[in-house]
């Protein structure tokens, strides 16, 4: 490494998302533009060349949202979103709300319900993104 180059920074979090999913791509696009996102590594798990770590398989990473904490711990689902929100200043309020008694388990149940309909929603989002801008106007 050249002395003039800054040392690489270990990410505060590593976020694993399905870049082939229009919904996931859109949501991660929103988070990646937020203040604090520069300390987060976003990994598109639909890209088979991206390393995931020994404890995360590509099928599992594609099936469900995962976040690796700075200490190497892997969390997923609602716990993953809570970790992501906690690392972004404008989203911390949501992380605090998620940590209230009984809320994170409720969010996990809602997330699991979303996973059932995600393929259909993704297909609809893909179709909508390819539609002419006035397609849904009356």
Reconstruct the topology from this structure.
Blueprint: E1 13-17, H1 22-32, E2 40-44, H2 58-63, E3 66-69, E4 74-76, H3 77-87, H4 92-98, H5 103-130
Parallel strand pairs: 1-2
Antiparallel strand pairs: 1-3, 3-4
Helix pairs in contact: 3-4, 3-5
Write a concise synopsis of the structure shown.
The protein contains 5 helices and 4 strands, in the order E-H-E-H-E-E-H-H-H. By secondary structure, the chain is of the alpha+beta class. It has one domain (13-130).
Describe the structure.
By secondary structure, the protein is of the alpha+beta class. It has one domain. A 4-stranded mixed sheet has the order 2-1-3-4, covered by helices on one side. It is globular. The protein starts with 12 loop residues before the first strand and ends in an 8-residue tail after the last helix. The N terminus is likely disordered.
Short key terms for the protein model shown above:
alpha+beta; 4-stranded mixed beta sheet
């Amino acid at each position: 490494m050249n002395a003039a180059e800054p040392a690489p920074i270990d990410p505060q979090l590593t976020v694993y998302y399905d870049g082939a999913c229009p919904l996931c791509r859109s949501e991660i696009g929103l988070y990646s533009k937020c203040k604090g996102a520069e300390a987060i590594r976003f990994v598109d798990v639909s890209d088979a060349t991206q390393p995931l770590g020994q404890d995360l398989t590509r099928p599992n990473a594609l099936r469900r949202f995962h976040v690796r904490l700075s200490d190497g711990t892997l969390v997923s689902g609602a716990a993953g979103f809570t970790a992501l929100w906690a690392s972004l200043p404008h989203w911390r309020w949501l992380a605090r709300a998620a940590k209230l008694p009984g809320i994170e388990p409720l969010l996990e149940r809602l997330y699991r319900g979303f996973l059932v309909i995600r393929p259909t929603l993704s297909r609809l989002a893909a179709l909508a993104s390819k539609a002419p801008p006035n397609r849904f106007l009356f």
